[in-house]
Amino acid sequence: MSAPATDDQADTGRLEAFSDGVFAIAITLLVLELRVPGGDGSLWHKLIHEWPQFAAYLSSFAVIGIMWVNHHSMFRAIVRTDRPLLFLNLLLLLWMSLLPFPTSLVSRYLGGGGPDASVAEAVYSANLALAAIAFSLIWVRAVRGGRLIAAPLGAAAERSSLLRFSVGTFIYAATIGLAFLSAPLALGVQAALALYYGFEQVSA
Amino acid sequence: MSAPATDDQADTGRLEAFSDGVFAIAITLLVLELRVPGGDGSLWHKLIHEWPQFAAYLSSFAVIGIMWVNHHSMFRAIVRTDRPLLFLNLLLLLWMSLLPFPTSLVSRYLGGGGPDASVAEAVYSANLALAAIAFSLIWVRAVRGGRLIAAPLGAAAERSSLLRFSVGTFIYAATIGLAFLSAPLALGVQAALALYYGFEQVSA
Amino acid sequence: MSAPATDDQADTGRLEAFSDGVFAIAITLLVLELRVPGGDGSLWHKLIHEWPQFAAYLSSFAVIGIMWVNHHSMFRAIVRTDRPLLFLNLLLLLWMSLLPFPTSLVSRYLGGGGPDASVAEAVYSANLALAAIAFSLIWVRAVRGGRLIAAPLGAAAERSSLLRFSVGTFIYAATIGLAFLSAPLALGVQAALALYYGFEQVSA
Amino acid sequence: MSAPATDDQADTGRLEAFSDGVFAIAITLLVLELRVPGGDGSLWHKLIHEWPQFAAYLSSFAVIGIMWVNHHSMFRAIVRTDRPLLFLNLLLLLWMSLLPFPTSLVSRYLGGGGPDASVAEAVYSANLALAAIAFSLIWVRAVRGGRLIAAPLGAAAERSSLLRFSVGTFIYAATIGLAFLSAPLALGVQAALALYYGFEQVSA
Predict the structure, then answer these.
(1) In the prediction, which pLDDT does C8 show?
(2) Residue A15 — very low, low, confident or very high, per pLDDT cuts 50/70/90?
(3) Which residues in chain C are closer than 8 Å to D108, comparing Cβ atoms?
(4) In the predicted model, what is the mean pLDDT of residues D171-183?
(5) What gap in Å lies between CA C116 and CA C195, rounded to an integer?
(6) Could you give the CA distance from residue C141 to residue C158 in angstroms, rounded to a whole number?
(7) pLDDT, position C91
(8) What is the topology of this protein in the membrane according to its UniProt annotation (chains A, B, C, D) (predicted)?
(9) For residue range D135-145, what is the model confidence (pLDDT) as tens digits?
(10) I need a surface site. Which of A181, B10, B28, B70 has the fewest CB within 10 A?
(11) H or E segment and range at residue B32
(12) Distance (Å, rounded) from C-alpha D181 to C-alpha C105?
């Protein structure tokens, strides 16, 4: 049985509308980081030379898009909000709307290799890990004791959904270190994890 | 008879809200590609000299606007979503939100002519063709077997609506090649096709 | 008696959502045209020296804000859409989302005076006049024969509401010419007209 | 007893949608002010050297996010709009969407210290104070005589809620002066106040 709504609780309509707005804007602003290449040579060669900015664009588009899909799934289960949930959701939106910045770091520094490529990719990884943590915190806040969901999950389902979040968070955190071994490999692991999240999800 | 909704299916409200957001932002961000002309000479002459950026702006505004109108029509027929539809819709949104980038390539290179104008226009054409393909995939996913629509179309109507999509996709794909014969002509064909889509549409 | 809804007609929900998005983005993107002043001297003096960009920002914010308020009022009366209305609304959104461009022309050229200030202000005026025309066309499409409104206005109310639109359009058009006599005066007339529209409106 | 709705009054749906849009865009545009550092040295050192832009980003994200949360709370109590409320809300949105500009002033000038750091921080403080004033005006308009709320607050609750707004406005106004004593201290006070508003709010 779910906990009864209190005065402090509200339905999730405006939270979802605001979140949809931030996700939609962050995913669309990524295009502003794509620069029309300058310099000499044919346009075709310059575009090919700029492959890291397109790889970073696609990766971030996939991450934000899939996080939106999962936010959508999660808020089919979450039926009420309270003030802590609003702030945890803001924390998630902070990392989502910050993502274009490390994306542009990766765009600019990945192609050059060396320590700067690793730092850029590590900052990008840290941003993803922080987003995954915020996602977990939202879920914990909502499901504990069936506080903000329509029907409590049961102890086993709760543990298994939290475990799945923890694994994702751990992998993103591990790519921070991996970036110093191989920045392109770390980006590849993140792309693979995005695809995994695309096919697996919180059951709602 | 339409297929019954499964656990994995949801209504289309948040998909439409998120898509409206991305369409609205992509169409409005186009203005950021318009540069205030620098250099010598009167402002009036500099603005006229910059005609390619205004032509590209209008063309992309028309394309995104009309795709929004048709998305709107299509989702009057589509009444449920499932996970594959969410991802196919994300694919469409990817091409919509990327469009400001090839638009700025066309703005900068069309006026100069030569191979760079053709490459810029071909990249722009490829973006449009990929968007048309994503549109078709959404429609196929939704109508096959009446999976996600209120009332199945019937075999004849299904074939005719898919044919219309295929023609559009084929023409956009053909403008990729046409761009190497004449970049301005390819842009003109795309503008004409946008107008055609403005008057003809998925019957919903 | 209003005309019965046809197959081609739909409710106004998504049109309003998409329009709200474009208005909200256009009004917020204006801030990106504000440049942090470079060069020598104290920050305070540089900010004061940049007054034209703040005047243009405030003017465009007021225009878009008030047009949103009136769009809101208008769509309390309009209860159905059809395909022509969707396109006329897109036309209005075109001029709304283009506005940051002439705003930045005014920001950059008004302070310098001379013919370039007049051209910048005339382009700005033309944008406003075209938006006012699009607004009138939406209203004509909706009210003629009570086509898309809940209750027809009656011939007298219809004429008087159209007259009010025509006056606004005429004044904006007149500021195109006025810009060549005095660009700051034309901007002042537009600010005054925005205030007038703020207090007077379509009765709904 | 609340006042009966008049013809001029409407429900708050589109006001909330438009406001959500502007809040969401303003909070997400902040990222565009973050510049990838140029110049020599390792990327890591350059990022650390750029701490003022990250402090300003976080501060503005917190301010806009918390103002959105409180707008959300406030419009759970406010159930009707009228034309003055629409304009007071536009005034609030003006200050919200302007905030990225003083944020970029602080980003650029806070690190250098001296009078320019104080001017940048004072402009930022003035923007926050003006937003707080607009917030109070919305609240006054809505609660006086129970005009636009579901159930009047009672004289005591009305006074106490207004007092809380006044205190916030006064503190923001005081940081304008404080900026000339110590710009970083003023920024710290604003961050503390944002946290306070995060935990305390209009009871709705």
Answers:
(1) 53
(2) confident
(3) 36
(4) 94
(5) 27
(6) 12
(7) 92
(8) Multi-pass membrane protein
(9) 999 988 888 87
(10) A181
(11) none
(12) 38
